[in-house]
Structures
1.
Amino acid sequence: VILYELTTGRRLFSGSEIDVMTAIVERDVTPPSVWVPGFPAELERILLAVDDPTRFDRLAVVAPYMRLEAEQVPPDPEWLEGLRTDWPGFIVPFMHSVFTEQHSVEVIAVMIGIGLEATPEVIVTQELELDWQGPARLLGRVTCPTLVVHGEADAAVPAELAEGIVAALPNARLELIPAGGHRPDIRTPELVNPLLLDFLLDL
């Protein structure tokens, strides 16, 4: 509960102490991304799984990102200012680094268009306010079966990071998508979706 409130700036539930304790046990938790635009999906899933392990039979994540090193590294102010002054200069090369698979020209063009409609403040706020080391400190407490899917050739987030995440989870396995980039779920869903279905449905 405390971790949820620290990362979202909101109370998990309101009311009397009895009301709050009852809600923690019985009510659904509002995902942090509802309150914090750009909240990292992997941190959100970990928060929800840690806060109430009995509600989650299993956990699946694609291309997770977190910082495993203990030391908090502050964001570079010049880089943040560069996002504000030249947003396309970030979005265009970033999307090319995300989709490194062959024949990705059309997907890259679509994703660049989506990215340019967004605002750099989403990334700036995320870098300034989020504790990127937080998820790493929680990994050992995620006891449900976990599947991590990652692109073997991910240029944005190297597969070695996914290997480190899986090593820190008590009950996890890693599936590497051959020649996959950073978002194999978007680029090659025909490879990713069967893995997710088999795992989530325990086939």
2.
Amino acid sequence: TLIAPKGVNRFARGPKDWRFKYDNVCSKLRSLHKSRFRIFIITNQLGIGKGFISRADFEAKMEIIAEHLHVPFTVLASIAEDEYRKPFTGLWDYLQAHCVDEHKLCVKTSIYVGDAAGRPSDIERSRMADHSNCDLLFAENIGLKFKTPEMYFNGDDVDYEDTLVRKSREGIVKPVDEFVQTYFKGYTEIVLATHRSNVLNNI
């Protein structure tokens, strides 16, 4: 959402293999901080849990990013396939319980910006399809206003992006009741019931 690898790889190859995706990322976040918004980075990092990325490398990258941003922010990372992994709402629940004071974050005035919105590829714009729709579903599950990075950081693409997000949202299949995820980890079957009913999972 905020950064991208320097080269052609879709995923970074180390803590220094990154660049800001837009020239105004720093100024936008500094403006939010000046307006007394709190900034949270909520990210799925299953690669850490699987050993593909070291926790030390991830933390080093966050420190380097912080040095460039010059604004305070809090990082919440899910490193396993559990209730904390987006689009499940575990990290939001944890944030509300442990990362804010007695005044909870207001859903109505908060904005969630994410690049996993289920958008298709666009050859004319040289853009690959989104790897999933977990960010859009995460915002839907909580009731947060959602924007793609293109919508938030690049005003020229607002109408185009809004159309893509609307189509992606229309394709979401609403569950009838509480979603239960079953998967196998090693030799153990793990069944996870979400914290709230009508939680949307990836489609």
3.
Amino acid sequence: GKPGLSYEQSGVDYDTLAADVVPNLGSYVDLGPIASGQQLNVVIPLKHDDAAIASYEASLNDPSSSSYEQWLTPEQFQAKFDAPAANVSAVRTFVTRDGLQLYNTGGLGDLTLASGTAAQVERTFGVAIHNYVSADGTHFFANTTAPTVPAGVGVVGVLGLQNLTQMKNPKGQPGPGNPEPQGQCVPVAGACTGVLGPTDLW
């Protein structure tokens, strides 16, 4: 079992999100655990049928389509493309088991936002979160291991377990000042909810 996961024997299957750890974390100076009472916010996006969304978006601009210029309201989009309600419920039950509080549940469809202490976040996702410093003096926190989430419900990431901003130039080679992407850029309805560099916006 994974240390820190407080309800592993509950009969629920879990997935480990290997991409949700800062790449080359060992190259930074580990300053030790984050303060257990530090407040954190986490975001848990669920997988969507990106092909169905892209197909619908293309049909909006196709004069021969019955969907031509039939724009959806946010509520209609959520009803048509959000993850199943049972998956959303499973994620929200999982997230609140160790005391994290949900917020803005009505306005975000299948996107789950929660807040609480670092200790609650660590217990919920089975991680340890440490403070780090980079060679250029940048201080940040990050999870030392990959988070654990319920299996089979389409969780694609856990945002907020780290706060290191890494900009990248897609035309350049990875290196100092141009690191590899963090693996926390998760497409949600065609938009990235992770860290973006300026060149990712146009």
